[in-house]
């Protein structure tokens, strides 16, 4: 193995719509959604070392524990391959935690993809997807590395090429309990099943949105702040919400306006991409 010191992106995602179409006998909810990957996210720096296993650092020291999905991903790879991996990982955290934009899941996927390549483990994509699914429902789409139509509990993925689109994302400083939302009797669980239709990116809805807006005043306030500029929608179970923008210039103008009026919502803009920046970075390393 050659020594390495590389930085690999961990992109965010949006759920352009999110329908709950039923509930399985084991209690898991069946979903339909479009995962839209973005060109914006965290960055993980991987450095080889002679010994000591896997270590993790982050400017936010609360994220350095063994319960971080980055560490769990590295341990899962070691268990699957029987290999001893020695590397230090530094997480440059940009994405909000618990925002519904996949920060932890994307960090996990980038770790699996990068360590698999850097250490020459050569696990096939299918095995990486299976490992990722055990670590989190949103991890597989980042391993696949494609904007995709998703079904099941989010693990049945069909790549869905889309034209480039700009988005503006707002992050209310509010933790939303996904577990409590799924338990809530007012949650819609019987949205009709749809066939794969890219148009649902514009015409679909998020079944969690009415509930989240009614329970969390901070999220409702963010929706009201965004509404003069378009039709905001919740991503995942929140608390982040997003606006679809006509083009980059419009996105930047709206960003300036919202940041001036509501800096507490930490708005940012990002471009939707069909292929993951993590995959592109790893492919460039291999050539």
From TrEMBL:
The residue ranges of the GHMP kinase C-terminal domain are 196-261
GO BP term, example: terpenoid biosynthetic process
One of the record's GO molecular function terms: ATP binding
In this chain the GHMP kinase N-terminal domain maps to 68-146
Asked whether the keyword Membrane is assigned, the reply is no
Gene3D superfamilies registered for this protein in UniProt: 3.30.230.10, GHMP kinase, C-terminal domain (3.30.70.890)
Catalytic machinery residues: 13, 138
As for family, the record states: Belongs to the GHMP kinase family. IspE subfamily.
Looking up PANTHER family in the UniProt record yields: 4-DIPHOSPHOCYTIDYL-2-C-METHYL-D-ERYTHRITOL KINASE, CHLOROPLASTIC
Q: What is this protein called?
A: 4-diphosphocytidyl-2-C-methyl-D-erythritol kinase
